[in-house]
Design brief:
The structure is a homotetramer.
Chain A (H helix, E strand, L loop, with lengths): L7 H15 L6 H8 L6 H4 L3 H19 L11 H17 L6 H9 L7 H19 L5 H25 L3 H16 L2
The first copy, chain A, binds a DNA duplex through helix 3.
Chain lengths: 188, 188, 188, 188
DNA sequence: TATGAATGAGGCTTCATTCAT
DNA sequence: GATGAATGAAGCCTCATTCAT
């Protein structure tokens, strides 16, 4: 195992930031190489092409959310209110750092119509997110209702992330989180 | 030697469809020319460059929504419930045809971080949309509350448009519209 | 019709020389551009890609041989001996100028195994060449025999062109042409 | 960690097949590595670079022909007719297996104009081939005449190999071999 | 010897834009 | 206005080769 300048995972992590900021089509291999401090060629040792790299990035980001965020919904030791608070707080933090975009939503809106190869990665990500929230809400709602509230929450969340960027105002996210919190209480 | 077949407005309209489907960075001047049945060169008689063309497109789309959708919120002759029903029904129709994307949201997520030149157009569009919905909700809510509900509705709306494309399921939009409708009643 | 630096036909002609000298895979678009005094990009206005350019080159060379060489076999006014003499003399001249290679044979041996897209162009070229010689030999031979002699002559011809380059000696071609001439007389 | 599976000679042999099929310029070190089941790096332990590898291949193929084919011309125990029959039969077999190309002729036509470093290998190969056939024909012809007939035969042979590939028809080779056989008898 | 990451040059192609006609 | 050739930069990718391990 030779010491590498950047491991494959680090390449994926760094590339994720660049793709999130610049978008898929507006990110060149040169952009990625510069961000990683590598030459363009080396990317083709690790990934077949730009598309496969992007798939690895989407998979890696999904995994990161799974472990770091979605898992919070399944920890048995907490009360639902505590779970939701932790969950939403963590989500808020994750989407507020940097410039606050969501790679998955960006990629969905940019590529779904003409580059369907990423669709499965996006679908699974949002399904897992909804599942996690539904698991929390199901403490106070029937399964169906919990699921619908989870869906609504994710929709609002992504809308808020967009408004954060369009209007440069974090208010939308905070108000949205408050609504999501109150929805749990309302179920009693 | 074909006489020009499309007026400037028609070029803008057709370009809007292409940009919506393909995204800004993934759309070449050749794509637009082919979609319009024109030569690339002619675009440069009408627009200084691709960026200015996009601005014209964003402006045109904004105008189209203003006249066709947002105006419904300001017609005095209807009851708020009727206004909202017409408004949401129209919105549903506008976002369901074709492949169901929203050029403004797509452009926001794709370009805001690195191409800020489009930001004003997007900001104004969403502000007008929120204003329109707030005007309707203000019949049953205080101005502040009405505005927040309007914001929430637009957020959910864009989230539903995204889910429509991610999951290929119109259910998200229908359920979202039902919630938006009930919010007006809840204000009584 | 704007004055062009190089017409499409001139591009094809110049490219043919480059391809013949350097081979298909060893010729870069930059090589062609430099030889034509153009930029690389312009080639993509005239030809879809390198492969299509090569097809146009092969077609153009075929046409050139048809008009300039093969046609000599079908001129009614000459005796067969005169026809053959003119034909072989012309062929000798055509293959002796420059560095003496044959684009069609070069391309056949270089590409047939892995790039079958050129096969039809090569097949037709050699078929026409054989047909032309067979037409001459048929004045003294039965059709079948004439055809076989024509085939033999082309085989020897291409072998001689190769030896011309391998050994740098024109003797092979001259001796080969003498044999081809004597074959007509032998048929009496 | 596979122990090296192929000796240097086996690498040369396998590489020869790949070069014959794909051509010199269209064969990458990666192609060779894959065909040999080795890593690219190992080639640089055995050969300085691609060019030196090719020289080793050309040398190895030459040697193979020397031992397997050309030697038949110098076995004293046989009558010239038998020698020629064995020689041509063996040659026919060697050029008919696989896809029927001749690495030496392919390399000559592909590289002679721009990569003269292979010329000596090709020249010696063809000289040895002509020498061998001349040795057989000299039983019935003067030395000069025998040599010219040998040259003619090799020329026709390579022409037939080309036609075999261009037209996908083995007839050209069979007819050519028959002519070569009859030439010996004609010398009586 | 053997590996595989790394490099830098170059290959094919696309693209926004310009310009002569 | 309208055309289409032309450009130069950039984009994705491949390749021969090197080097640390």
């Amino acid at each position: 195992m030779p010491i590498q300048k950047l491991s494959k995972d680090e390449i994926i992590f760094t590339s994720a930031q660049v793709f999130r900021k610049r978008g898929y089509n507006n990110t060149s291999m040169a952009d990625l190489a510069e961000a990683c401090g590598l030459t363009k060629g080396i990317f083709y040792h690790h990934f077949e092409n730009k598309e496969e790299l992007m798939k690895a990035v989407l998979h890696g980001v999904h995994l990161h959310f799974k472990v770091t965020l979605f898992a919070l919904a399944y920890s048995d030791s907490l009360a639902p209110e505590e779970k939701l608070e932790k969950f939403l707080g963590k989500a808020r933090k994750m989407f507020s750092k940097n410039d606050g975009g969501c790679l998955m939503a960006n990629t969905a809106l940019e590529t779904l119509s003409t580059q369907p190869e990423f669709a499965p990665y996006l679908k699974e990500f949002f399904r897992d997110w909804i599942d996690a929230l539904a698991a929390i809400y199901s403490a106070r709602y029937q399964e169906d209702a919990a699921r619908r509230i989870a869906e609504q929450t994710v929709q609002e969340f992504e809308g808020a992330v967009m408004f954060l960027r369009v209007f440069g105002d974090k208010r939308y996210m905070d108000e949205m989180l408050e609504r999501a919190t109150m929805r749990l209480a309302a179920g009693c």
